Design the sequence.
């Protein structure tokens, strides 16, 4: 079965700082990878996804993620965060027709 | 705005009560899922369905049951609620096969059993 590992569960940073969230997955087959975001009081929303092709994926709100197959990683980045990026971020891998999620990163951006 | 709806949004209920968490989607998705979400933990798949009259247990053992009588409706039932059932329950759906683009999630039901 697939699994996802996310590090640094709590991240606090100031506006304009750069953000990078690590994601490592375990799955033996062809992977589809996702990052979801959950803003306070809202539902989980798809931030970006990787299915195939260019390993550098651009998503909404200035986020991007890089798939590195040799490292089984799919790290999320944003060069300059805003207060509105305060949220919980979940990495997920699709395998066996279902998604497995990591524990999430709680990101707090201080104005 | 999500096209998948969960009710109630919040529920506080006494031990031993029977409860049903509702989930409906308007996208015509065949596949639907129930996840359990606790703070600082992974989302755990507890049930899924690939279509009408198809239900399966997920990776996390759960005392809840589900039904799928209509494509758009995927309710979750707890026959006798216990404090250990306190959690957030998320419903999701996805389109099948080649058109798969990820899951669409509802807003969740936060259940507290006292």
Sequence:
């Amino acid at each position: 079965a697939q699994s996802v590992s996310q590090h640094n569960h709590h991240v606090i940073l100031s506006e304009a700082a750069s953000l990078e969230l690590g994601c490592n997955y375990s799955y033996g087959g062809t992977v589809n990878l996702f990052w979801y975001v959950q803003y306070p009081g809202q539902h989980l929303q798809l931030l970006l996804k990787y299915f195939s092709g260019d390993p550098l994926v651009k998503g909404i709100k200035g986020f991007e993620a890089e798939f590195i197959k040799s490292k089984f990683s799919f790290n999320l980045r944003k060069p300059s965060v805003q207060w509105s990026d305060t949220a919980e971020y979940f990495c997920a891998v699709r395998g066996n027709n279902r998604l497995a999620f990591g524990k999430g990163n709680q990101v707090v951006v201080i104005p | 705005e999500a096209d998948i709806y969960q009710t109630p949004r919040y529920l506080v209920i006494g031990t031993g009560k029977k409860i049903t968490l509702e989930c409906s989607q308007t996208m015509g998705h065949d596949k639907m899922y129930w996840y359990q979400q606790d703070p600082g933990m992974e989302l755990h798949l507890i049930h899924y369905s690939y279509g009408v009259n198809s239900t399966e247990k997920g990776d996390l053992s759960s005392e809840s049951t589900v039904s799928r009588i209509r494509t758009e409706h995927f309710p979750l039932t707890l026959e006798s609620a216990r404090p250990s059932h306190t959690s957030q329950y998320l419903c999701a759906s996805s389109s099948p096969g080649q058109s798969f683009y990820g899951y669409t999630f509802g807003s969740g039901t936060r259940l507290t059993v006292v």
